């Protein structure tokens, strides 16, 4: 499926169905991230159950500590 | 009267009135590393009235690539960063009062600074979330806005926290992120630093001149190498029952239980560090991360041990660590935060 991730059209493999899958795909599942789908922030406990659809606009910001 | 601030005064949203405001304000910068020196130089050039900087570290050669206030002489002399920064800032703009504090930005010290010197804005230039959670609670308790900034590799992130208006860091994170990637483990390039500094200083100037409606209002992140930029409006994340900014705040990170506990182990030339809050490390992953940096790592199901020159860092699954080869608590803490965030 194709998603617009952080403003860029990206083709993701077919096994990716939820936000949790997507975070694993980008190796962000161990990090704390804020995820927005179509301009709505998704709660962390809903990552497993929130299905993604072709064309969804996803914004992901993950926290880092360095400075 | 000189022309020092003329170009900034010509900028309409600041003007002469804004400049007068800036010169009457006090900014606290927590940390004098890459972000701290960048923010400090910009604010001192901009003519802020007073700047307080606090840092517990000293200048090393590996800092010079991106920590813009320091010179080779500072690294040779192993000068405390706060002192070296103050010296350079005095050359940049002698009109600004700079207070340098060589010490740990812990609960007591940050509360003292907040209560006694009443900064108008706090700029986060730390390298760990434990200190950020303390800054966050101090901000909520004393009603002082603070500007989060962080960077690793070519990636950076920033957000402006306004007490009683925006969510706080506790609302955004829910739990404390556990280490892994820090600048000392994943590297950092200076443009990522400068970008975060630019976001922080711009927001600080808006706050100092009182132009709150121009604040960005979004959590922003970018990657200057992979050419990405994202901004998310996070207002809806604010929680009424947040222990830091909610209706009945307890400021948990200001309490004794949540502070990192350290102890020098008798006769062992070692310091034990027990971090604040709950942590749980994936030990094989942590060992892998250290090994990738060419460090000598030994591991078993209970701990990861890594050799760091004359020191050895031993990390347990719950985040407790032993730093061998020192009796100096500050040095041990610095090593801990450097490798575990
Ligand atoms: Zn909160």
Strand-helix topology:
The complex is a heterodimer of chains A (67) and B (341).
Chain A: E1 2-5, E2 8-11, H1 19-25, E3 33-37, E4 40-41, E5 57-62
Chain B: H1 6-10, H2 15-22, E1 26-30, H3 34-45, E2 50-55, H4 72-76, H5 81-92, E3 97-102, H6 107-117, E4 121-124, H7 129-142, E5 146-152, E6 155-161, H8 169-173, H9 183-186, H10 190-209, E7 218-223, E8 228-233, E9 261-265, E10 270-274, H11 283-292, E11 296-300, E12 303-308, E13 311-316, E14 321-324, H12 329-340
Parallel strand pairs in B: 1-2, 1-4, 2-3, 4-5
Antiparallel strand pairs in B: 5-6, 6-7, 7-8, 9-10, 10-14, 11-12, 12-13, 13-14
Helix pairs in contact in B: 3-10, 6-7
Zinc ion (ZN) binds next to α8 of chain B.
Q: What do you see in this structure?
A:
- Chain A: InterPro entries: Beta-grasp_dom_sf, Mopterin_synth/thiamin_S_b, Thi_S, ThiS/MoaD-like.
- Chain A: It holds the Pfam family ThiS.
- Chain A: It comes from Anoxybacteroides tepidamans.
- Chain A: This is Sulfur carrier protein.
- Chain B: One of its GO terms (cellular component) is cytosol.
- The complex is a heterodimer of chains A (67) and B (341).
- Helix content of chain A is 10%, strand content 31%.
- With 67 residues, chain A is mostly beta strands.
- Chain A has one domain (2-62): Beta-grasp domain (Ubiquitin-like (UB roll), Roll), CATH 3.10.20.
- Chain A has a five-stranded mixed sheet, with no helix packed on it.
- In chain A, a hairpin with a 2-residue loop joins strand 3 and strand 4 (40-41).
- Chain A starts with a strand and ends in a 5-residue tail after the last strand.
- Chain B has 341 residues and is α/β, with parallel strands linked by helices.
- Chain B folds into two domains: 6-254, Rossmann fold (3-Layer(aba) Sandwich), CATH 3.40.50.720; 260-340, TATA-Binding Protein (2-Layer Sandwich).
- Chain B contains twelve helices and 14 strands.
- The longest helix of chain B is centred in the middle third of the chain and has 20 residues, at 190-209.
- The radius of gyration of chain B is 20 Å and the shape is globular.
- Chain B starts with 5 loop residues before the first helix and ends with a helix.
- Chains A and B meet through strand 5 of A and helix 3, strand 5, strand 6, strand 7 and strand 8 of B.
- Residues 167-168, 170-171, 239, 242, 244-245 of chain B line the site of zinc ion.
């Amino acid at each position: 499926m194709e998603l617009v991730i952080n403003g860029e059209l990206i083709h993701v493999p077919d096994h990716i169905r939820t936000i949790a899958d997507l975070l694993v795909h980008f190796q962000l599942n161990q990090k704390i991230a804020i995820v927005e789908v179509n301009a709505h922030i998704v709660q962390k406990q809903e990552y497993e159950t929130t299905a993604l659809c072709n064309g969804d606009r996803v914004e992901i910001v993950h926290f880092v500590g360095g400075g | 009267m000189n022309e020092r601030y003329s170009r900034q005064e010509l900028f309409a949203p600041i003007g002469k009135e804004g400049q007068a405001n800036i010169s009457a304000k006090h900014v606290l910068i927590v940390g004098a590393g890459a972000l701290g020196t960048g923010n400090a130089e910009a604010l001192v050039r901009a003519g802020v009235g007073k700047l307080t900087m606090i840092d517990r570290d000293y200048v090393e050669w590996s800092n010079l690539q991106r920590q813009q206030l320091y010179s080779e002489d500072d690294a040779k002399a192993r000068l405390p960063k706060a002192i070296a920064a103050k010296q350079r800032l005095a050359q940049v703009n002698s009109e600004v009062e700079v207070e340098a504090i060589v010490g740990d930005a812990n609960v007591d010290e940050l509360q003292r600074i907040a209560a006694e010197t009443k900064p108008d804005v706090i700029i986060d230039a730390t390298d760990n979330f434990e200190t950020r959670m303390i800054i966050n609670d101090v901000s909520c308790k004393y009603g002082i806005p603070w500007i989060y900034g962080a960077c690793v590799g070519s990636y950076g992130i920033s957000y402006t926290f306004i007490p009683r208006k925006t969510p706080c860091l506790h609302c955004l994170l829910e739990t404390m992120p556990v280490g892994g990637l820090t600048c000392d483990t994943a590297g950092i390039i200076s443009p990522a630093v400068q970008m975060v500094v630019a976001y922080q200083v711009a927001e600080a100037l808006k706050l100092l001149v009182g132009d709150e409606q121009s604040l960005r209002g979004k959590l922003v992140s970018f990657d200057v190498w992979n050419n990405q930029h994202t901004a998310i409006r996070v207002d809806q994340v604010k929680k009424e029952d947040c222990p830091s900014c909610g209706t009945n705040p307890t400021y948990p990170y200001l309490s004794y239980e949540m502070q990192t506990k350290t102890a020098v182990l008798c006769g062992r030339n070692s310091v034990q560090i027990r971090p604040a809050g709950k942590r749980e490390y994936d030990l094989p992953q942590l060992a892998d991360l250290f090994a990738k940096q060419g460090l000598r790592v030994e591991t078993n199901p209970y701990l990861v041990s890594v050799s760091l020159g004359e020191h050895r860092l031993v990390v347990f699954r719950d985040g407790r660590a032993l730093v061998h080869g020192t009796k100096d608590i500050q040095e041990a803490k610095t090593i801990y935060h450097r490798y575990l965030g």
